[in-house]
Write a structure and sequence with these properties.
4-stranded antiparallel sheet; 36% helix; alpha+beta; 13 strands
Length: 331
């Protein structure tokens, strides 16, 4: 077993560390159109399959990182100092341990999210991607995009996809050390594409995705079908993007999300994130589609629904979902 620390040492081999005073970085949140659900290595967040996401432009995380003169790390989130035992401070501190030059080196970390966590968009992907960039900036390593994606992955798998804007593909890779498991931007623009967050419930979810995907790999009897399904969906999604075929993109994304939720439901004990409101929202989307509207959805490890549509249909989508928060990933 290779540890995250060994991966970091491998990436930094031969590089000088020249810590500056402060470094600032930004990374966008992302939403997967073909999902990541299951790891082949839990210590390195190496996925069983590839995945493909779209970055959310101005919705993401800003991070400022410096050296703290205090006796411990100092962590702020959205302008508020965090207790050392808060879950965010502990997770950030454990990640920073990978880069700490000595035990008496402490960091000052300010993180600010522009991604509204209450809207059901995850901020851990953008947070760890911005943190990886800020660490690189603070120590002056000048790492390449691929190396930053690998370092971000060590914090959270989906963070590997948050280093770039636009459509981003995370290659699963095969190597035990994960040096071939990184994400890169695809050459494609789709200015008319819109993602809409429909918030149905912002209460804490019953089971986190880290634990949930581990349980699916271990107990879902048709998990073995998932890698083949993802491989097919990746081919179909890339073809849809290349052809700018929105109905094809929507069909792949919605089908892949539903397949992931079927895996979850077939996990033991079962994981069901959908609430009655989630099912009602799905039915509204399907009814709208029956009546000719090009509206599709995707869902992550939670009860909220993310709509996929094109700019020309925004007014009709807002009529159906008045509270929707709309993002234009390509600006
Ligand atoms: C995704 N999710 O592709 C999938 C879809 C949730 C459902 O990536 O354990 O927070 O840090 O690697 O990245 C959420 O999982 O898990 C996720 P870790 P992560 O977006």
């Amino acid at each position: 077993m290779i540890s995250a620390r060994q991966v970091v040492q491998q990436i930094l081999a031969g590089r000088e560390s020249q810590p500056g005073k402060r470094a600032a970085a930004y990374a966008p949140a992302n939403i997967a159109l073909v999902k990541y659900w299951g790891k082949r290595d839990e210590a390195l967040n190496l996925p069983v399959t590839g995945s493909l996401s779209i970055s959310l432009g101005p919705l993401g995380s800003h991070v400022e990182l410096g050296r703290s003169e205090g006796a411990a790390d100092a962590v702020w989130l959205n302008g508020k100092p965090l207790a050392a035992d808060s879950s965010f401070a502990k997770r950030a501190g454990a990640y920073l341990d990978l880069f700490r030059p000595s035990v008496d080196f402490h960091f000052e970390l300010q993180a600010r999210n522009t991604v509204p966590t209450a809207a059901g968009f995850a901020s851990s992907a953008s947070g760890f991607a911005a943190l990886a960039k800020a660490v690189d900036g603070l120590f002056g390593w000048g790492l390449a995009a691929r190396e930053l994606s690998i370092l971000a992955r060590l914090g959270s798998g989906s963070a590997a996809r948050s280093l770039e804007e636009g459509f981003v593909e995370w290659h699963a890779g095969k190597a035990p050390d994960g040096m071939d498991s990184f994400a890169e931007r695809m050459e494609a623009e789709w200015p008319e594409l819109r993602v809409g967050a429909v918030v149905l419930c912002s209460a804490e979810k019953p089971i986190g995705s880290r634990e949930g995907m581990k349980r699916s790999v271990e107990t879902c009897e048709f998990y073995r079908e998932w890698p083949g399904r993802v491989a097919q969906d990746l081919v179909a999604l890339k073809a849809a993007i290349a052809a700018k075929d929105f109905a094809a993109l929507g069909a792949v994304a919605e089908g892949n999300a539903l397949a992931m939720h079927a895996l979850m439901a077939a996990t033991r004990p079962p994981i069901v994130y959908a609430l009655p409101e989630t099912v009602a929202a799905m039915r509204k989307i399907w009814a709208a589609r029956e009546s000719g509207l090009a509206l599709w959805f995707t869902m992550d490890a939670g009860p909220n629904v993310k709509l996929l549509f094109e700019a020309r249909d925004e007014a009709r989508v807002r009529e159906i979902f008045p509270g929707v928060e709309v993002v234009a990933p390509f600006g």
